[in-house]
Recover the amino acids of this structure.
């Protein structure tokens, strides 16, 4: 013991005292809570007591004391007897007679340790004799450990399945104890000295083994299972991979020293440097983490997902954002993408016509999403069938529910597109989320479909709730706006009445004919303008226009361009003959709103173009500028939303009013924009089937006296 470092003596003392304490606790546990019907209950209590006593003696006298070795022999005999009594759990100790000779032989070899201790005390006076006794004692310990492990193997493998469930905790603990002893005494036999580092660790091994021994003695041991969390399993597997890599790297580096001389040293240093660089670049990579996660889930768990942790993470992502500028739409994509480890995603929401428009994107800026990207037919299909589309199946030509007709080609051409998840709210499709392929490629399975379907329904409810809240907020702001306009209308109407009265009085009392004539003209025009303004304010937001008639779109375009003469270069580049049914005044007003927005977004020397085209069915006015452009998110959430404006002092109703006016006349307003490139507005109307078609006439809902 004089050559043993003090640190190992201290560790050996502490660990063996801990082992004795844990064995004592295990004895109390088995005595109070253990299954009293088990035939191995008394042998287990005896084995735990003998092991606790051995730990105390080992801590007090050290590993090389004769009393320590003698007590260890008694401990081993109790372990062997416990193994024999474990066979009685299914009655095999009566039928398997070959077991008894093996048990007797192991006990006899273990008892020889006492004889060797006596010989060592009396006759091993020289170093050579002491070494011989050590090797013989170590060899006998190795034989006993190997024989006990063979018995444990036959015990567990030969047991029926229900009995295995009862035995697994106890046999696992005993196997760990005997396997560690086998390593200790094998090293001692080969090294011709005791490995004091391993001897110090025996107390810790006993403490760890006492826990499953106590668990195995309870009646509920058969139903107890070790269920590590996915995080623990993933981290453990990661540590094993890193540890294996480091061991391999060290082994190769050490073997290179065999080259000898400076060459061997240079090769060792060069390999260590290269291996370290590879480790820094490869071990933290997302691909390796994805592979480890998939491997752990595939081989260690019955189900792919830990539903509790996934749901907690989902609610945390939706409820709180680390990025203050991250919208609910972006958080919705992230919440679903985190479930499948997808690195990015797109959110498409349903518009008023049933088509799906890009509403937000999360970490997927490189994909180009064209305008009118997903047709309304896919909306109807997903509402009817409520399934998740596997993009790889569509690419391979496997048409499950007819989705091949509706999935756009631009999406299939992008290899990262992986899954299309519908967002259903009360059997109505709110939108879809397109998930990118995870770093570790895999196929979608039934667990993915079930979980993503439920998450999609939950996200649809969140998005629908946000839409309702936004609608209520807009309604409240419109109500406030209408109240303010009512006061304005009242004042303007009074002013118009006063001007009309002034005009009539001037006709009667003016003295100067020339002055009187000019004043009358001026006042009459002012009154007409005010009455026109009142009429327009009265019908603001109405569902239909005042009057629809045959209108030449080219004339509307020319008049609009003329209004901006001297202010900005607005040019009409094409004037096809296009006649539609519309209200000329409202159509011009809508076009003026759009042209004004384009002028504000364009440089002073950048012209705005108007283009009038027509075919047999559709007539169109296109407005094109080379201004700042707009993002898909702003087009979806801000352009046609009242009171949302990109201008510092804008009121945010110009584009909204233009769209409502066009829709009220039976037309459509579409927009296609690219940030930094420009914007294209397109107003379309159906061409009347007959030029003599009678237009619809509607009187103004309010008349001004």
């Amino acid at each position: 013991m004089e050559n043993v470092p003090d640190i190992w003596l201290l560790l050996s003392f502490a660990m063996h005292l801990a082992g004795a304490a844990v064995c004592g606790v295990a004895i109390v546990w088995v005595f109070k809570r253990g299954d009293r019907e088990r035939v191995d209950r008394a042998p287990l209590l005896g084995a735990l007591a003998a092991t606790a006593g051995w730990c105390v003696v080992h801590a007090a006298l050290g590993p090389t004391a004769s009393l320590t070795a003698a007590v260890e022999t008694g401990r081993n005999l109790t372990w062997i007897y416990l193994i024999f009594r474990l066979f009685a759990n299914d009655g095999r100790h009566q039928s398997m007679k070959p077991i008894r000779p093996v048990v007797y032989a192991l006990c006899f070899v273990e008892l020889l340790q006492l004889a060797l201790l006596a010989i060592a005390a009396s006759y091993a006076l020289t170093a050579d004799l002491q070494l011989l006794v050590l090797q013989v004692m170590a060899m006998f310990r190795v034989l006993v450990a190997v024989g006990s492990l063979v018995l444990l193997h036959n015990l567990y493998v030969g047991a029926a399945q229900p009995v295995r469930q009862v035995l697994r905790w106890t046999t696992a603990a005993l196997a760990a104890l005997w396997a560690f002893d086998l390593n200790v005494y094998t090293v001692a036999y080969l090294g011709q000295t005791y490995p004091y580092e391993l001897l110090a660790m025996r107390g810790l091994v006993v403490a760890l083994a006492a826990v499953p021994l106590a668990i195995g003695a309870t009646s509920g041991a058969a139903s107890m299972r070790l269920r590590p969390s996915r995080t623990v399993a993933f981290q453990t597997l990661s540590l094993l991979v890193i540890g294996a890599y480091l061991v391999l790297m060290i082994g190769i580096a050490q073997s290179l020293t065999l080259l000898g001389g400076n060459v061997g040293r240079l090769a060792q240093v060069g390999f260590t440097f290269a291996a370290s660089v590879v480790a820094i670049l490869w071990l933290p990579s997302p691909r390796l983490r994805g592979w480890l996660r998939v491997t752990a889930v595939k081989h260690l768990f019955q189900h792919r997902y830990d539903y509790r942790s996934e749901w907690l993470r989902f609610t945390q992502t939706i409820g709180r954002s680390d990025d203050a500028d991250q919208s609910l739409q972006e958080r919705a994509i992230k919440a679903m993408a985190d479930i499948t480890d997808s690195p990015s995603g797109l959110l498409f929401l349903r518009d008023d016509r049933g088509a799906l428009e890009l509403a937000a994107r999360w970490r997927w800026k490189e994909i180009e999403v064209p305008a009118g990207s997903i047709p309304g037919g896919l909306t109807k299909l997903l509402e009817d069938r409520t399934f998740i589309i596997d993009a790889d199946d569509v690419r391979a030509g496997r048409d499950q529910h007819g989705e091949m007709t509706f999935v756009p080609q631009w999406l299939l051409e992008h290899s990262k597109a992986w899954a299309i998840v519908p967002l259903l709210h009360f059997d109505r499709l709110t939108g879809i989320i397109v998930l990118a392929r995870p770093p570790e490629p895999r196929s979608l399975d039934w667990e993915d479909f079930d979980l993503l379907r439920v998450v999609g329904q939950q996200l649809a409810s969140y998005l629908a709730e946000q839409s309702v809240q936004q609608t209520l907020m807009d309604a409240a702001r419109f109500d406030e706006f209408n109240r303010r306009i009512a006061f304005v209308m009242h004042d303007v109407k009074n002013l118009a009445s006063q001007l009309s009265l002034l005009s009539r009085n001037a006709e009667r009392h003016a003295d100067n004919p020339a002055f009187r004539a000019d004043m009358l003209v001026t006042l009459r025009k002012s009154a007409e303008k005010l009455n026109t303004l009142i009429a327009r304010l009265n019908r603001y937001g109405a569902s239909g226009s005042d009057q629809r008639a045959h209108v030449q779109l080219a004339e509307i375009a020319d008049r609009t361009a003329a209004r901006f003469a001297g202010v900005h270069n607005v040019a009409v580049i094409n004037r096809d003959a296009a006649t539609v049914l519309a209200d000329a005044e409202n159509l011009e007003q809508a076009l003026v709103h759009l042209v004004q927005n384009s002028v504000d977004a364009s440089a002073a020397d950048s012209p705005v173009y108007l283009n009038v085209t027509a075919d047999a069915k559709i007539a169109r006015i296109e407005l094109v500028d080379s201004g700042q452009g707009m993002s898909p998110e702003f087009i979806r959430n801000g352009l046609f939303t009242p009171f949302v404006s990109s201008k510092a002092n804008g009121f945010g109703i110009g584009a909204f009013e233009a769209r409502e006016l066009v829709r009220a006349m039976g037309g459509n307003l579409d927009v296609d924009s690219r940030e930094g490139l420009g914007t294209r507005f397109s107003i379309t109307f159906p061409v009347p089937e007959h030029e003599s078609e009678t237009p619809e006439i509607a009187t103004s809902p309010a008349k001004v006296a």
Remarks:
- The domain at 334-538 is CATH 3.30.450.40 (Beta-Lactamase).
- The radius of gyration is 44 Å.
- The chain has four domains: 6-226, 231-300, 334-538, 549-686.
- Residues 446-509 form the longest helix (64 residues).
